[in-house]
Amino acid sequence: MKVDLHSHSYYSDGVYSPAEVVELANQVKCDLFSLTDHDTTDGLSEAQQRADDLSLNFTPGVEISAFWNNRTIHILGLDININNDTLQKGLRQNQELRKERAEKIGLGLRRAGIKEALDKTRVLSKTGMITRTHFAQMLIREGYCKDMKSVFRRFLTGKKPGSTIVEWSSFEEVIGWIHAAGGHAVIAHPFRYRMTQTKIKRMFSEFKEAFGDGVEAITAMSSEQEINLCSNWAKDINLLISSGSDYHGWPNQRINVGSLKEVPKSDNLIWNHLSWQR
């Protein structure tokens, strides 16, 4: 099966509309697809309608920022009810934190000599949500950096000018929002957080203790070693395995919908637990 359960539209920090992202999934013959915009479900109705038109198996999703061990961790909510009040209240809370963060990043970049940083970044957002990806793309377009990696290294992490810490809700709270909406909670791209293997395994264990459901073992950037390690750790503590490209559509990211390595043979695949299978 070709399963891609992690992608973004312009309702968060992607380039294309929800319908266009679904069309891309259909073109590459995804068997199951999900749109998982950051801290918003606003694009899911459009995505679901286009998926229905194309007879593409679709499960509604969202990617929610959470706080663990003094760092931001992203948790995917898959197979969610977008009309759930608990989930939507939590997402509104995160949206406000994102607005505050954008102001702080803009101020930090302005102090570093980048004039009108926030205004220039706002131009790149079609819906008003400003993410770090938007700031990164602005800095690339303005010629301050050549790629995403250099942007984060020079401006958006650690003690750099545009870095800021946001105290999102905890694992327990975010997992609670997702479960209240009938969904499954999955740690997104676990090897992207610049942690040692020991810390990743500890994160998995604490996520499981908080009643989390799975981990994204396969991403567009995963190595075979990372896939095997993640899959084995997940199996050891009975977490489900998910697969997602984290597609955004920016030309400098070199990631395509459905472009993923094969899933290791396993009995604990998350799509066997989602409602599309029932």
Order of helices and strands: EHEHEEHHHHHEHEHE
Give the helix/strand class. alpha/beta
Low-confidence stretches: none
The level-1 CATH class of the domain at 3-87 and 183-277: Alpha Beta
Annotated CATH homologous superfamily of the domain at 3-87 and 183-277: Metal-dependent hydrolases
The geometry reads as globular
Contiguous helical run count = 9
What does this structure look like?
With 278 residues, this protein is α/β, with parallel strands linked by helices. The chain has a domain at 3-87 and 183-277: TIM Barrel. Helices cover 39% and strands 12% of the residues. The chain contains nine helices and seven strands. Strands 3-4-5-6-7 form a five-stranded mixed beta sheet. It has a two-stranded parallel ribbon with strand order 1-2. Helix 1 (18-27) runs parallel beside helix 2 (44-54), helix 3 crosses helix 7 and helix 5 (132-141) packs across helix 6 (148-156). The radius of gyration is 18 Å and the shape is globular. The chain starts with a strand and ends in a 35-residue tail after the last strand.
